């Protein structure tokens, strides 16, 4: 057997085989499933419910869990309910593999959050096919979820993704005592751009500006998103005020350097942006919305001070 629940904290290699976690109190049952899957899957194992939950906390998450029902200590139904209650593990498909076969037991397993129910002794072809089905469904739902977080026009993150990231990063910054920075970026006189060049050209301009903004949010915890219309945001976790200001200025300059013609702009003959910069150290009782409001207020000032500038 390749992987034990106590080993292997390594991150997922790029082309990793799907990872199965087999949970059963009887080693002989684990061995049987290991034989079925070892050629195509990375098979991990746990011999108790507690060990299975522990595994999920400390290792790369499995893609599917094969879970026994009758186990001493925590039974499979309890394990499944715990997995489903934790946002980290809630989306992992759980297939019950059990000697129990009554309709009542099958119903209880499905109600606990299992997606399938297979009787022991397992038929290798059947269990393989059922695992494959769950992996396909999971891949499809992951794909749909990723689409739900992308802006259709520019391909960068959308407002929904930003709202989630802001809430998450705010809590994390509060825990770590680190500052959180936000840039709010708005294209100058974009209504005139559309009026002059047409809406399609306006769309292409939004795409070019989005690409430029995204290039400036390159650190692992940076997030560039389209906030709406011709407004964008950059969330910069752990950035200092000076760091955020430098990034804002580099970004403003990079958009100007696109030299995207804007003949009807009173600011410059090319497309420019105004940027509002805000940095806050989250405090207990504070709200992430305050950071948004501060960046928005700074952006408003940048507009009134003549546009094509960054204001904190
Ligand atoms: P300001 O410098 O004060 O920001 O002026 P503005 O003209 O950029 O601001 P305003 O809010 O008056 O107009 C924003 C324009 O952005 C109006 C709207 O038609 C355009 N816009 C919003 N979303 C899209 C889009 O998806 N595609 C195109 N082409 N234009 C859009
Ligand atoms: Mg058992
Ligand atoms: Mg605007
Ligand atoms: Mg604008």
TrEMBL record:
The keyword Phosphoprotein applies. InterPro entries: CheY-like_superfamily, Diguanylate_Cyclase, GGDEF_dom, Nucleotide_cyclase, Rev_trsase/Diguanyl_cyclase, Sig_transdc_resp-reg_receiver. GO terms for molecular function: diguanylate cyclase activity. Coiled coil: none annotated. The keyword Amino-acid biosynthesis does not apply. It catalyses: 2 GTP = 3',3'-c-di-GMP + 2 diphosphate. GO terms for biological process: cell adhesion involved in single-species biofilm formation; negative regulation of bacterial-type flagellum-dependent cell motility; phosphorelay signal transduction system. SUPFAM superfamilies: CheY-like, Nucleotide cyclase. The modification 4-aspartylphosphate is found at residue 68. SMART domains: GGDEF, REC. GO terms for cellular component: plasma membrane. Residues 178-312 form the GGDEF domain. It comes from the Bacteria. Its EC number is 2.7.7.65. This is diguanylate cyclase. It comes from Oryzisolibacter propanilivorax.
